[in-house]
Each structure stands twice: as structure tokens, then as C-alpha cells.
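Sample pair:
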Amino acid sequence: MDKYLFIINPTAGSGRTRAYVEFVREYMSRTDKEYRIEITTKPKEATEMVMNYPEYKICVAVGGDGTANEVAKGILQRGSGILGIIPSGTGNDMAQALHLSMDKEKAMEGLLRGEAVSIDLGRVRGDYFFNIASVGFDAWVVRETDRIKKVIKGKTSYILGVLAGLLTYRSREVDLEIDGETIHRRATLIAVGNGQSYGGGMKILPMASIYDDMLDVCVVKDISNLKILFLFPSIFKGEHTKYIKHVEFFKGRKVRVSLRKGELLNIDGELFEVEDEVVEFNLSNQKLEVIV
């Protein structure tokens, strides 16, 4: 019988995930499943926990996208296991890509009765990404939002982050190579990924699929701050696809973007400084098994 390792991030969802500890314990006590609950206390710890308990085949991330990301990395590093997700974070974009229920009772039911499927993985900087990686304005917004979150929580921090980004970010000249074909653009934002949404529901890649063995690419061209304000609300519904004058979409397995050193790279919500002049995004040959 499969064993379940529940890794709970009590700070996810502005702290409301703390209540999931008792919920998981009570729910699982009514089953005949063998399980263990571990509670994270610091970043990256979820990955270590997966590595520390190799006998547990199904590793369940209870939290947001960051927790799911860390648990998935642990599974890939140890070379075995299946990812389960009980979404309880602020964004839950990975769970949405998998069409998981946001209701905790239904999510638990789906976890215990669902089946495992294999999903695509991306790679950048020698690391995996599971949803979306990007450069440009949105990475700038993540940085500003992280600063604001120290004072103001919730979606208000993101709105203020967007406004702060508008005041400080300017579009960049880039060479974009997709499966060997190069185009030059002055771009405000370039997003590459498997999932459709990021940032808590922004459907930046509405045509993307985690099963099609392709990476989707969205390029927002050089536009004014006023047009960014106009365009951003449409992204939440994936309706920016109709603004073909300002937005382009591509598919490919290898995407190379030329950038200046020091630019920001957003990988599943985590920021890194670009160390090389070219950032390469690749579709990984590996797959990740996830319960849906």
C-alpha cells in the first residue's frame, strides 16, 4: 500500500494553512492509509523532507506554489515519488493548471481517489521550473511586491507592486531564439512555460498545456506605461491574445533570450539575477508524476 507524506507549510495563504494540520490528521485517520505529517519551518525545507523519507511514495504539498515547487524538486532529486497537492496558498497556479479543486475536502478526496499522470518540466539555469519562468516587467513586479509584502499582505501588495514597476521599469532590446529561429524585439515581458497562469491567476499563457511536450512563449512588445495598465487586466482572463499589435505567442522546445547581466529572472515566483548574457529555457526530457 502506498504511503503518504504530507508536507505542510503553515505560513502559506497568509497563515491559514496552519489549520490544515488538524484537518489532514482527522481526514486521514478515517482511512486505512499509512501517512506522516511534517511541518516546514523555513524555505527549502520541504525538499529536504522529501529526501529524508524515501519510503513515502506519495509526497503531498499542502500550501501554495512555493511548497509544491519544493516538494516536486525533492521527488526529482531522489529519483522517485508522486506529487500530490492540497492547494492552500495565495496563488495556487500549479494546482489550477492541474484542474485541482480549491476546496480542501474535495482536494483530499481527489488525492486519495485520483490517478497519477506525467506532466512536462522546463529547465533553466540548470534547475527545473514547473509552471512559468519569465524576464522583464513581471519579474520586476515580483521584486517590488516582495518588498511591499513586508508591510502589506494579500493582493493589494501585488497591485502596488505593479504600480511601482510602472514607475521604474523600461523595456529592453532582446534577441529571442526559438528552436533555432531568431527574432529581434524591444520587449516589455517574455514568459516561457507549461502552465497557463502565474501571479495568482494571471493567464499569461492561455494556450499552454502541461502535457503537449512544448513550451509556450508570450512576448509583450514595447508598450507605454499607459498601455501596460490597459493590457494587464485582460491578462487575468487570458484575453490579451486579441491584442496582436502588442502581444505575440510562440511554441518551442528550446528558447534562448539575450539579456544584460543583472537582469531579473522569475522562476516559478522566485527571483534570480541573470549571470550570463543568454538565458536558455529547455523542455526537459524528464517528466513529473502528479495525482490529478
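The chain has two domains: 3-114, 127-284.
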